[in-house]
């Protein structure tokens, strides 16, 4: 007996090929709710993402044993209902951890180095190869002004206070 898997999101070719080696794969557009529910009725498993799966959608699916969501979260599923029916739910909880960290550090560096502002400045045609020092001087001037303000604030906070002030 061949297993049937419903794919309700486009899968990477190597993943779909692997599944096809082990089961019959039926690709379904989840926007067509009736076709999606009909496909689930005789499916053993389903794989996809970004679609809310409600208990009424799997009501007449006696062979359904597993759902796999290609996402970090699983809040689009009624986990208690799946558990009651004996349907296993899998997800990919750590798949985006490293990408998120990389993005955060890229944004920190871009912000600290004014990458966007300098890119716009170059796109406006202001850079002819000789203005590098000018850009750095302007940035240095801003940093110096911030440091002067900080030093002044520190001096004021350490100044002796008059008893009458």
Topology:
Elements: E1 4-7, H1 13-22, E2 24-27, H2 33-41, E3 45-48, E4 66-69, H3 79-85, E5 88-90, H4 97-112, H5 115-123, H6 132-158
Parallel strand pairs: 1-2, 1-3, 3-4, 4-5
Explain what this protein looks like in three dimensions.
47% of the residues lie in helices and 12% in strands. It is an alpha/beta fold and 165 residues long. The chain has two domains: 4-90, Rossmann fold (3-Layer(aba) Sandwich); 97-158, no CATH class. It has a five-stranded parallel β-sheet with strand order 2-1-3-4-5, with helices on both faces. The protein is elongated.
Q: Nutshell version of this structure?
A:
With 165 residues, the chain is of the alpha/beta class. 47% of the residues lie in helices and 12% in strands. The longest helix has 27 residues, at 132-158.
**What fraction of residues sit in β-strands?**
5-15%
Return Rg in Å: 29 Å
What's the name of the CATH homologous superfamily of the largest domain?
NAD(P)-binding Rossmann-like Domain
CATH class of the largest domain: Alpha Beta
Number of DSSP strand runs: 5
CATH-level-2 architecture of the largest domain: 3-Layer(aba) Sandwich
The helical percent reads: 40-55%
Helix and strand content put the structural class at alpha/beta
Uncertain segments: none
In spatial order, strands of the major sheet run 2-1-3-4-5
Distance between the termini: 91 Å
Mean pLDDT score? 87
**Main sheet specs:** 5 strands, parallel
Any idea what the shape is? elongated
Q: How many separate domains make up the residues?
A: 2
- The succession of helices and strands, N to C, reads EHEHEEHEHHH
CATH topology of the largest domain: Rossmann fold
